[in-house]
Amino acid sequence: MAGDDDIPTVNIRLWRADAIVLFDWLMSTDLNTVPITHPAQKQALADLCGRFEWACDYNVMECSEEEIAAAQEEVARDMGW
Question: What is the pLDDT of residue 12?
Answer without folding.
Answer: 86
